[in-house]
């Protein structure tokens, strides 16, 4: 029941999705803590942060397009979020707002369910905020080699330079990228309502690799369907989403939520 003791968490984005509230509220109910999570459609980032302080929210997730802008309004930035250059999690400790990044944790945990990362060769497609977070995780995981591929060459090169990776060229070059163990799509290509698109054609995918797609809806993107036909192990984007939310829930409530409980609720919605 919502009462004067209820701790409020939220999310801010220009376009909201219900997936965050499904995961968080399911977890809080299951943990038996008096928390609620509310998605807010926000068009003014600075005012929203003032609102977090004024209304004493316990925490807040940050989504597109505010993951960078939000950093200048917070009191502290975790060094990892600073290195990534993006915040997706705000924790309010008695009025002191600290920004964290849990996207990289989500991605690396989802990958490690299926594969080792140390000494592996990775192709990472995309150079946006998600790619930056994943890049941090790949570097920390001591991959052998990471090659960035991106449509906009300057952005791809800048990301590769920031993390000491190679830049492999634009999307057309993807079939020429030699020898990888793991391929990650960190672009939005394939996301509902353009769910028939794939960043890579079936013919350009290699056999017997690991393929991860950060796209959440649909669960089975064309890229993952192609990858299965090529006998690749596949990782769906929803697993990264749950793992990054587990970090947030622990930061907000101090409790460890159950992956399976959140997964069940999320898959019911996505199927
Ligand atoms: P996010 O923060 O979620 O990563 P973003 O910063 O907008 O989102 O980045 C989206 C990524 O998807 C970018 O790498 C973008 O490529 P550009 O740098 O060329 O814009 C990539 N992307 C989006 N739509 C694309 C498309 N139709 N074809 C190829 N790449 C696309």
Could you characterize what this model shows?
The chain is of the alpha/beta class and 271 residues long. The chain folds into 2 domains: 7-101 and 239-270, Leucine Dehydrogenase, chain A, domain 1 (Rossmann fold), CATH 3.40.50.10860; 104-235, 3-Layer(aba) Sandwich (Rossmann fold). The protein contains 9 helices and 12 strands. It is globular, with a radius of gyration of 19 Å. 2'-monophosphoadenosine-5'-diphosphate (ATR) binds at residues 64, 126-131, 150-152, 155, 171, 187-189.
Oligomer: single chain
Bound molecules: 2'-monophosphoadenosine-5'-diphosphate
Q: What sort of overall outline do the alpha carbons produce when their principal axes are compared? A: globular
What is the helix tally? 9
The CATH superfamily name of the largest domain is: NAD(P)-binding Rossmann-like Domain
Number of strands: 12
Number of domains: 2
CATH C-level name of the largest domain: Alpha Beta
Quick check: average pLDDT?
95
User: In whole angstroms, how far apart are the ends?
Assistant: 29 Å
Largest sheet: 6 strands, mixed
* Rg, alpha carbons: 19 Å
At CATH level 3, the topology of the largest domain is Rossmann fold
Low-confidence stretches at least 5 residues in length (pLDDT < 50)?
A: none
The amount of beta strand, in percent, is 15-25%
What is the share of helical residues?
25-40%
Give the strand line-up of the largest sheet: 2-1-3-5-6-4
Identify the CATH architecture of the largest domain: 3-Layer(aba) Sandwich
Write the layout of secondary structure elements.
Elements: E1 7-13, H1 19-31, E2 35-41, H2 45-54, E3 59-62, E4 76-77, H3 79-84, E5 89-93, E6 96-100, H4 103-112, E7 121-125, H5 129-140, E8 145-149, H6 153-163, E9 166-169, E10 182-185, E11 210-213, H7 222-229, E12 233-235, H8 237-253, H9 259-270
Parallel strand pairs: 1-2, 1-3, 4-6, 7-8, 7-10, 8-9, 10-11, 11-12
Antiparallel strand pairs: 3-5, 5-6
The site of 2'-monophosphoadenosine-5'-diphosphate has 15 residues, from helix 5.
